[in-house]
Structures are given as structure tokens and as C-alpha cells.
């Protein structure tokens, strides 16, 4: 056998016999009722995995390990440099805490299928809250703390939660994030009236309570009767996670239960190369899909120990923070975004802090969330002396589309590539007519349907949007929204988005959504937002504003207004800090704004005057404005 043979055989089998392949992987999961059909393909593009099967994700993540000999093994290590605190929970302790919280939630009348919004910082109670919902068959929707009240309100209106679980505050290195006033504002804005809020008061800040609606977490959980796991259908939703679409209206990615548990279990062993009982660290946030899959469900379903880190790669307290955590908790792998490594490299280019720590248990660095740019990956590889695996992900897919399978058959790493497809993924590069392109040619990355287990079966309350947004342009395929190429060896490189999504510090943002905010300013007639290259964050948004005629306020004031508006309406995570006032926007004769050309200009990349341009002079004006801005 040569390198990669094992992977290739497995991948080929996953495509030729998907039902046989995934039925075998499903043996690793506890089912209360075996499925009737592994794959229900009767209503494409709505595929259902493990139809007829029943299970509980929380049982698989906790109870079965307690019963199966891991009761005293650590399940969760909370490490919080921002509060200088640490806590450790064994599987038994975590199960007991989760059962009590589930009891508290059930006492509010929340049961199978009911939605619960979790708006919490990176504290153990947040992880427990997710698992407690899963225990009851309730559908959680975690909202990232860096979003503004309006974003939270639109999620409340989309999923109509019976309960919101929150905490008094989050801690960012430079400020306290006041969760409760944001939540109160969101509840006021939303049409759906949230009947109940349960609030965890952190020692750093005591939030005010709304009488009759809000309950104190610690008080309420004291009287709760521990709840047992409720079996749900494999096809029932475990969670909804909202992600950026092309408009301001949120897109609720649905994750089902059975396929997700199966896929995550498979990936922990074969992709991440973890052995049960080892410590695995994903330094993301539970507000993102990566956090759902690899801080919470993946490691626990697999019987590993997960680290919950409330801190940053730099500044908490220094650029050695990651090495300290890995060394102190004996982590075997770290999963983070390249931007974190760019931040570390900027502060400690020679890796002086790295040399202070003993990382003998550390085997692999996994990167995702944005393109692993070769200089950063190369730097990380040389510094750490371990393999650095870039793998490709989306909220929609729940786990990696492509990667290098460390526990199965590690293959050579090619800088700039996310390696090879995960089982069940048949990727092709298509041109605009849906024709397959040759090896090495850049085009739209699309995946032949059905997608493997663990991916999204639909969007919450929006089957049609699911179909239109992802499955229609290339019939029989899932349109990933990313562009890239596949080389002669089958390695996949993901280069850029094909839509108006930009990636800021590993966070996915919609330029269309930011444009909606800018366009709401009284003085703005027209606007465009583009993502421009940034050394640290990968991309940052830049606004271009055309003012209404007769407006003669100073431009700095208007720019200041729109910066504040984006922060207030979308949130600090948008990192919208700059805008240029221009006379006109460059458009094609049919009226399409030439965002791509402006982006190339801003990034000093070669660009050509589009043949369809309405007025070439406009682009010259923009080029001058951009040059002035950067000098
Ligand atoms: N709650 C509230 N605000 C938050 C937040 C949270 N959970 N996370 C970030 N923010 C705020 C930040 O405080 C910052 O606000 P500011 O403009 O007032 O300073 C703003 O959102 C932008 O944050 P970010 O872009 O994350 O910058 P940062 O300086 O806080 O951190 C990195 C930089 C590189 C450490 C960080 O972006 C990072 O770890 N990114 C990885 C993302 C990731 O894990 N993605 C998932 C795929 S693995
Ligand atoms: P999100 O849904 O927030 O996880 O963002 C998904 C998007 O991030 C993808 O569609 C890609 O554009 C980008 N992305 C994630 N991982 C990678 C990667 N390894 N290489 C290139 N782009 C990536």
C-alpha cells in the first residue's frame, strides 16, 4: 500500500455504497431505536439520514460515557485568562449539572421541538445549556456575543423561542460586554414575545432582572428535578445556527441529530486522530459552528476531554497563551483560525514564547474558517514542528468538507490546499454553465447530492430558500458558494467566495447586510461594501458611499455615523471601521455594481476595465479616492 491508498479506498466506498458505509459508522453511536432506512432519498434535494432511528445526543455525549467507564475522566476544562479562573468537570459532574439544568428548562414548559436561544459567553454554563436542551429534545440556537441587539431580535423572530438562556456579561480584553441590556433591547424589538429568560449572574457584573419574566439561574436550578434524556428522531433538529446570507434576513441552518452524531464521531477518530480520553482543544467560540461541533458535541460524543477557552491568542496575557493552554492541559491538537496565528506571529515572530512551554503531547494543528494562507501555515509548521492541516468548513456542512485524515491515512500537506474530500463528499469544479472544469482550473466548487450525514437537511422554516439558495443553480449539486480548484492529485484549494460574503478574522459576514445598514443613513443615496485584504484579519469591510445631492455635512461625520450604525445594528464583530465618500459607483450598463473590480483595485491586484462598464471615468475616480485613503 502506498500513501493515501487507505483514504482513497475509503472515500471511494463512501460514494459507491453510502448506506453501507454510514451504517457501519453509526455503530459507534447509541440508538434507542435502530433506523429503518440509512438514507431516505425520496424527496431530493431534501435527503434524510437514518430515517426511523431514535437517539439522544446528550446521552451519547455524557450518560453513555458515565455508564461506560469514563465517569471520573475529565469531560470539560474551562480555562479563562480573562477572568483568571479555571474549572474542571468530569463526565459524571458534567452529566449531573446538565441533568439539573435540563430539569430547570423543562420546568419552564420547554420540551421536544421547542426552541431555546442561548445568548451566553464562553462559560461552562453555556456548554451545559446546549447539552441540557439536547437532553430534552429542545432545539437550541446559540447567538454569538459579538452581534448587536437587532441581530438577536431577528433570530428571536425567526425561531420563536420559548426561553432565552443568558448571562450577565461577556469579557473582552478591552471591555465588558453587557449581555443583558442587549437582550432586553432585542426582546423589546422582536415581534415574538419571549415568555421567559433565565440569567446566569457572573461575578464580574450583576444584571438587572425584569420581574415576572426573568429568573435567576442559580436559584432556579437549585430546585430543579434532574431530567432524563428524551429520545428524538434521528431526523429531528438538534440545533439551529444562524449564518450570513445575502440579505439582512437571517438564515437558520438546521442540524439534525442522528447523522450529526455519526459524522462527528467518525471525524474525531479519523480526521483529527484523537484517541478517546485524550485532550482536544478547539479555540473557537460556541457561537460558531466549529464551536458547536468541536468544543461541545464532537469531543464529548467521542469520549475525549474538551477545552473551553475564554481568551484570545494574544493579549490574554501574551502571544504565548495558546502554548500555555496546550502545555498545561496536555492537549494533543489545536483547532483554530489562521487569523489567530497571524496575530501570534505579529506579536512574537521568532516564537520566543513558544520555547517556554513543553508541548510534548501536541501532535497536530488544524486550521479553518478562512483560507490558510501559505506564509502563515508555513510559519506555524516551522514553529510547532508538527503537521498543520488546513481543512474546509461551512456552517451549512457541520463538519469538514475537505481535510487531511490524521487518524486514517495522513497524506502529504500541500501549502494553500485543504487536501482531499471527506467521506461522502464528491466535489467538482463547475463553470457558469455547470460544466465540469479541468484539473487546476478555478471555478465554482459544488458537491454532488446527497451530502453526507451531519450536513444541513434544510433551513429553518425556509425549505424554498434552501432549494433556491443552494440546490438550484447546479441541478443535482450543492453550490458551496466558494470558488477554487482541484489539482491532478485530487487536492482541493478554496480561494474565495463567489457571492457577497466576506471573511473577517474567520467570521463570515454579508456585505449586502452591511450595505442595508449604510443605505439606511439619511444622507446616503447609494452604497457598496467590499472586503479588502488585511494582513491580520484576512479581509476587512470597506464602505463606499454616494451622498444625496445637497448634503454638505463633513464627510468624516457621515462616515462616523455609518461606522456607529453598523456597530449598533450588526455588532462589533462586523469590524466595520472605514468608508469612502465618492461621487458615483462603478456599474455595468445593466446597473450591477462592480464590487469585484473595486476589490481588486483596493488590494492592488491586476484589474481590467470591464467591457460592460457604463462609464470608465467612475473607476478612475474610485482608484484615486482609494489611493488617497491608503496614503
Ligand atoms: N462578544 C462580544 N464582542 C466580541 C466577541 C464576543 N464573543 N468576540 C469578538 N468581539 C468583538 C471584539 O471585542 C472586537 O470589538 P472592538 O472593535 O470593540 O475591539 C470586535 O468584535 C472584532 O473582533 P475580532 O475580529 O474577533 O477581533 P479581536 O481583536 O477580538 O480578536 C482574533 C482577533 C484573531 C483573536 C479573533 O478574531 C479570533 O480568534 N478569530 C478566530 C475566529 C474563529 O475562531 N472562527 C471560527 C473558525 S475556527
Ligand atoms: P462559516 O460558515 O462561518 O464557517 O464560513 C464558511 C466559509 O469560510 C466558507 O464558505 C469559506 O469561504 C471559508 N472557509 C472556511 N474554511 C476555509 C478554508 N480552510 N479555506 C478557505 N476558506 C475557508
* Strand-residue proportion: 25-35%
Q: Summarize model confidence as the mean pLDDT.
A: 95
- Level-2 CATH architecture of the largest domain: 3-Layer(aba) Sandwich
CATH third-level topology of the largest domain: Rossmann fold
Approximately how much helix is present in the residues?
Answer: 25-40%
How would you describe this protein?
With 631 residues, the protein is an alpha/beta fold. It has two domains: 5-311 and 391-485, Rossmann fold, CATH 3.40.50.12780; 505-630, 2-Layer Sandwich (GMP Synthetase, Chain A, domain 3), CATH 3.30.300. It is built from 18 helices and 31 strands. Strands 5-4-17-16-18-19-20 form a seven-stranded mixed sheet, with helices on both faces. The longest helix is centred in the N-terminal third of the chain and has 16 residues, at 91-106. It starts with a helix and ends with a helix. The model has no long low-confidence stretch (mean pLDDT 95). Adenosine monophosphate is lined by residues 243, 289, 368-372, 390-395, 418, 481-482, 494, 497, 503, 508.
Detail the topology: elements first, then pairings.
Elements: H1 5-16, H2 18-25, E1 37-43, E2 46-51, E3 54-55, H3 57-70, E4 74-80, E5 85-90, H4 91-106, E6 115-119, H5 124-136, E7 139-142, H6 149-159, E8 163-167, E9 169-172, E10 175-178, H7 179-189, E11 197-200, E12 214-216, H8 217-222, E13 232-233, E14 237-243, E15 251-256, H9 258-270, E16 279-282, H10 289-302, E17 305-309, H11 321-329, E18 331-336, H12 338-347, E19 364-367, H13 374-384, E20 387-390, E21 402-403, E22 420-421, E23 427-430, E24 443-448, H14 463-471, E25 477-486, E26 492-497, E27 501-504, E28 507-510, H15 511-519, E29 524-534, E30 538-547, H16 555-569, E31 578-582, H17 595-602, H18 616-630
Parallel strand pairs: 4-17, 6-7, 6-8, 8-11, 11-12, 16-17, 16-18, 18-19, 19-20, 30-31
Antiparallel strand pairs: 1-2, 3-13, 4-5, 9-10, 14-15, 21-22, 23-24, 24-25, 25-26, 27-28, 29-30
Helix pairs in contact: 1-2, 3-4, 3-5, 3-10, 4-5, 6-7, 9-10, 12-13
Coenzyme A (COA) binds next to β9 and α12.
Amino acid at each position: 500500500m502506498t500513501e493515501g491508498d487507505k483514504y482513497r479506498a475509503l472515500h471511494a466506498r463512501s460514494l459507491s455504497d453510502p448506506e453501507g458505509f454510514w451504517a457501519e459508522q453509526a455503530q459507534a453511536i447509541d440508538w434507542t431505536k435502530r433506523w429503518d432506512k440509512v438514507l431516505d432519498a425520496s424527496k431530493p434535494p431534501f435527503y434524510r439520514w437514518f430515517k426511523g432511528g431514535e437517539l439522544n445526543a446528550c446521552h451519547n455525549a455524557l450518560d453513555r460515557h458515565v455508564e461506560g467507564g469514563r465517569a471520573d475522566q475529565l469531560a470539560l476544562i474551562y480555562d479563562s485568562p480573562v477572568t483568571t479562573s479555571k474549572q474542571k468537570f468530569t463526565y459524571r459532574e458534567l452529566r449531573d449539572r446538565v441533568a439539573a439544568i435540563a430539569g430547570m428548562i423543562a420546568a419552564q414548559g420547554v420540551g421536544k421541538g421547542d426552541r431555546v436561544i442561548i445568548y451566553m459567553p464562553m462559560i461552562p454554563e453555556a456548554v451545559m445549556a446546549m447539552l441540557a436542551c439536547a437532553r430534552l429534545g429542545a432545539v437550541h440556537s446559540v447567538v454569538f456575543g459579538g452581534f448587536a441587539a437587532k441581530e438577536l431580535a431577528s433570530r428571536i423572530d425567526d425561531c420563536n423561542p420559548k426561553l432565552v438562556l443568558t448571562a450577565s456579561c461577556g469579557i473582552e480584553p478591552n471591555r465588558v460586554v453587557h449581555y443583558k441590556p442587549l437582550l432586553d433591547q432585542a426582546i423589546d424589538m422582536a415581534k415574538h414575545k419571549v415568555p421567559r429568560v433565565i440569567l446566569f449572574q457572573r461575578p464580574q457584573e450583576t444584571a438587572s432582572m425584569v420581574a415576572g419574566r426573568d429568573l435567576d439561574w442559580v436559584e432556579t436550578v437549585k430546585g430543579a428535578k434532574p431530567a432524563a434524556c428524551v429520545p428524538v428522531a434521528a431526523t429531528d433538529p438538534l440545533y439551529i445556527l444562524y449564518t450570513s446570507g445575502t440579505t439582512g434576513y437571517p438564515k437558520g441552518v438546521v442540524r439534525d441529530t442522528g447523522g450529526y452524531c455519526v459524522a462527528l464521531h467518525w471525524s474525531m477518530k479519523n480526521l483529527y486522530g484523537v484517541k478517546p480520553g485524550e485532550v482536544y482543544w478547539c479555540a473557537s467560540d460556541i457561537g460558531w459552528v466549529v464551536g458547536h461541533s468541536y468544543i461541545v458535541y464532537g469531543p464529548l460524543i467521542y469520549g475525549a476531554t474538551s477545552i473551553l477557552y475564554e481568551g484570545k491568542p494574544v493579549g490574554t496575557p501574551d502571544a504565548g497563551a495558546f502554548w500555555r493552554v496546550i502545555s498545561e492541559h496536555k492537549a494533543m491538537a489545536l483547532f483554530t483560525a489562521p487569523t489567530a496565528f497571524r496575530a501570534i506571529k505579529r506579536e512574537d515572530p521568532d516564537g520566543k514564547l513558544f520555547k517556554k512551554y513543553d508541548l510534548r503531547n501536541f501532535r497536530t494543528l488544524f486550521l479553518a474558517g478562512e483560507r490558510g494562507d501559505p506564509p502563515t501555515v508555513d510559519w506555524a509548521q516551522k514553529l510547532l514542528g508538527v503537521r498543520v492541516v488546513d481543512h474546509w468548513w461551512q456552517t451549512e456542512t457541520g463538519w469538514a468538507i475537505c481535510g487531511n485524515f490524521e487518524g486514517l491515512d495522513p497524506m502529504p500537506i500541500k501549502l494553500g490546499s485543504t487536501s482531499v474530500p471527506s467521506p461522502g463528499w464528491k466535489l467538482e469544479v463547475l463553470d457558469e454553465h455547470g460544466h465540469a472544469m479541468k484539473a487546476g482550473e478555478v471555478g465554482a466548487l459544488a458537491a454532488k447530492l446527497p451530502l453526507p450525514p451531519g450536513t444541513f437537511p434544510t433551513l429553518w422554516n425556509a425549505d424554498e430558500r434552501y432549494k433556491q439558495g443552494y440546490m438550484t443553480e447546479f441541478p443535482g449539486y450543492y453550490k458551496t458558494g466558494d470558488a477554487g480548484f482541484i489539482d491532478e492529485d485530487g487536492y482541493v484549494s478554496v480561494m474565495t467566495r463567489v457571492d457577497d460574503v466576506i471573511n473577517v478574522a474567520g467570521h463570515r459576514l454579508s456585505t449586502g447586510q452591511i450595505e442595508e445598514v449604510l443605505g439606511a443613513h439619511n444622507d446616503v443615496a447609494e452604497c457598496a461594501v467590499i472586503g479588502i485584504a488585511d494582513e491580520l484579519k484576512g479581509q476587512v469591510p470597506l464602505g463606499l458611499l454616494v451622498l444625496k445631492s445637497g448634503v454638505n455635512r463633513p464627510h468624516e461625520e457621515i462616515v462616523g455615523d455609518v461606522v456607529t450604525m453598523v456597530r449598533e445594528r450588526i455588532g462589533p464583530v462586523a469590524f466595520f471601521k472605514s468608508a469612502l465618500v465618492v461621487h458615483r459607483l462603478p456599474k455595468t450598463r445593466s446597473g450591477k455594481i462592480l464590487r469585484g473590480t473595486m476589490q481588486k483595485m483596493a488590494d492592488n491586484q491586476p484589474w481590467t476595465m470591464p467591457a460592460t462598464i457604463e462609464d470608465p471615468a467612475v473607476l478612475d475616480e474610485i482608484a484615486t479616492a482609494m489611493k488617497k485613503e491608503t496614503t
